[in-house]
Design goal:
Layout: H1 9-32, H2 40-66
Helix pairs in contact: 1-2
InterPro entries: DUF2530 (IPR019681)
Keywords: Membrane, Transmembrane, Transmembrane helix
Transmembrane segments: 12-33, 39-57
Length: 70
């Protein structure tokens, strides 16, 4: 069985959060133009919240997953 690939999870989670932030800017612009966005605003906020939670988890659990590939 091959060893798991070691990745920097912090970079992965930050990249995802950057995409959510871009979506938030687009959503806010649409809202400013009075274009209905439906539930998109709340979905984006939830995505950012999950990203923050994952960054906290990554920080607390870094030692466990960083030893997987050794």
């Amino acid at each position: 069985m091959p060893k798991p690939i070691r990745v920097n999870l912090q970079r992965v989670f930050l990249a995802g959060m950057v995409m959510w932030l871009i979506a938030l800017v687009v959503c806010l612009v649409l809202m400013a133009l009075t274009i209905p966005t439906g539930r998109a605003f709340w979905v984006i906020l939830a995505g950012l919240g999950v990203g923050v939670a994952l960054l906290v988890w990554e920080r607390l659990d870094r030692r466990n997953y960083s030893q997987l590939g050794k």
